Each structure stands twice: as structure tokens, then as C-alpha cells.
Amino acid sequence: MKIIHDNGYNEVERLERRQAIYRNILSGVESLIIAMQKMELRYSTKEIEACADRVTEIIKRNDEKIKLHPELKDAIANIWADPIIQKEIAPRGNEFNFNESCPYFLNALDRITAHTYVPTTQDILMLRITTTGIIEVKFEIKGVNFRVFDVGGQRSERKKWIHCFDDVHAIIFVVALSEYDQVLFEDTRTNRMIESLRLFRSVCNSRWFYNTAMILFLNKKDIFEEKIKTTSIQCLFKNYMGKLVFVKSKS
């Protein structure tokens, strides 16, 4: 909404998101390394194994500011290019909380690690940032003023907002279609789509929103369309008997 109705992001706002993008990249690589350990797989070469050790050491430092210097960038690139990672780990990323946007960033390392790098609109859209607290966006459409509040969907965040909006006109509830085979970051035993269904039911039936309109948005259609070619939605919805194509599966 900010991009479409509020003039998008200026250069300062774009630059502010560089650190978050770097963290997304490191987090993604960490997930790959942990997955290799859990599956007891070996890297293709000793050199790539050394790269994994180097990246793990940097992650453990938990530096407040991350710099993807050439040595670190090359180590990450080598890990991502490893045939074992590409064949055994990346296709099963949903099992290891390997975020869907990570391949996008890992495939653009040269651009992202350039000294002159300024995040693009697409970079910002692909970025995963955990929403904490409440973020407000204001904009105007044809003389009508809108106020939209973005709230945290994580379990720990819900108690902060659910009672604050009993006078809103509508709730926009966003669910990723592609999360039918993924688990929560905060609870690896709980499927994300099942959790979304539970939360949606809870919000719809809440006494705070008795007179509030509900708008359900199903996003990440592009990822879903590709995923169902290899991962059936029957892994979650056992009774689904339709074809594994987007037009049928989306409903």
C-alpha cells in the first residue's frame, strides 16, 4: 500500500533496509548449514566445508551491523552453489525454515554486496522483517483518507493489538498460499497455514470485531503456483482430490 498509494520508498528508507536484507541472507545460509548437519550430509569439497565454518563463526558473533565483505560474500556464494545444497537441501527448504525469498537474494549476491547497492522495490517486497508492535500507514484515494495499521502476526505479538481496534471499519487478513507445507518459526511443530486458519477463526469470532468487515487476501500466488508442481497440497489437506494446478488448487 505504501508503494502504490504513498509514493513508495525514498532513498533513505531504501538504504535503511540494507541491514535487514543482509540479515535475511545470513539467516538463510544458517538454515542451509543447520540442515546439512541435521541430515548428516557432507559438502562437495573441503573448501566449501571451510566456508560453512567461516560463515557460522561470523553469525555467532551476532554483530549489530553486518558487512558482506568480499570474503564473506564468496563464502556464502560457494555454499549456495554447492551441488549437495542445491539437490538435497534447497528443494526441502520448507522443512528447515529456509525462507522462500532467500534464493532471490542469494542469486543476486553480486548486486547486493556492491558498495553502491541501494535496495530496489522488489528487494523490499521480498524482504522478511518480523513486525513488532504496530505500524501505521496513511494515504488518500480520491479524496478519502485511509489509515492502515500493520500488526505482528507472531504469537507473542497478538496480545499487543487484538483489543486495540474494536472501532476499525475492516480487517485485512493476509495468508500466504504457499505456506501449506511450512512450519512456524516460533514453533516447528505447527503448520503455518493451520495456524493462519486458527487465527482467522479467532479474529472473526472475537467480540472486539463483532461489527467489523473481514477481507481475506491470499498472497504469494507465484510461489504457490510453482510449489504445487512438486509438493501436493494433500500433504496438509488429505481430502483434496483435484489436479495439482493453480486454477484448481487455489480454491
UniProtKB/TrEMBL annotation:
GTP binds at residues 125-131, 150-154, 219-222. This is Uncharacterized protein. InterPro entries: Gprotein_alpha_su, GproteinA_insert, P-loop_NTPase. One of its GO terms (cellular component) is cytoplasm. GO terms for molecular function: G protein-coupled receptor binding; G-protein beta/gamma-subunit complex binding; GTP binding; GTPase activity; metal ion binding. PROSITE patterns: G_ALPHA. Mg(2+) binds at residue 131. SUPFAM superfamilies: P-loop containing nucleoside triphosphate hydrolases, Transducin (alpha subunit), insertion domain. The lineage of its organism: Eukaryota, Metazoa, Ecdysozoa, Nematoda, Chromadorea. It holds the Pfam family G-alpha. Transmembrane segments: none annotated. It comes from Meloidogyne incognita. Keywords: GTP-binding, Lipoprotein, Magnesium, Metal-binding, Myristate, Nucleotide-binding, Palmitate, Transducer. The keyword Lipoprotein applies. GO terms for biological process: adenylate cyclase-modulating G protein-coupled receptor signaling pathway.
